[in-house]
Specification:
mainly alpha, 220 residues, 0% strand
Amino acid sequence: MGLREQNARRTRSTIAEVALVLFEERGYEATTMEQIAGAADVGTSTLYRYFPTKDSLLLEHPVLDVRPIADLLAGRPVDEPVDVALGQALAAHLAALDAGIEKIARVRLQIDRNPAVRARTWDVWGRQRTLLEQVLADRLDTAPEALETQVVAHIIQMIIQMAMDQTRAVISPESPVVYAERVVDLLSSGAVPLPRMPAKPPGRDWTMVRRAARGGESNV
């Protein structure tokens, strides 16, 4: 890493940390970008170059900037079984997040307290899931939009969310990797009940029923 990049990362981290402290002391809504620039001792143009919007100071905080699980999965050996590759990528992603777990808890608290910012996390997760689906499609020999691919991607994100939530709840001494292992064990062992869909009555096609209902018809 060159000197310029090191300085840029240092400046970015300083701005983000100053902003986080101001949000905690004054509140997110009451804190202005100008106040953040002043406290960080940078010009407003510099601030906007690193963080173009106020919510990006939380959603793009450097502590959250770990290698995406999609990249980690893409980097696994091509001949590695998919379930093993997924487990390795998941563990590496969560271990990287664990390194900054206490600050992540502070950032997440600010996000959770501000509905507008919290709503944008869905956009972030959606983009990350799309990238994961593309990598999974290559591994599973399916299409990114295939139901199988999407189910796996959603499950992976659910495991990440649950592991991080469990760790953040009390700043647990256990790594989120440990919680992820427990969730995976529960899912794979059959120890937790999964929905059992109702049996389809003879002659009933749920797709046709749905289409008929949309058209104002009824063949129930």
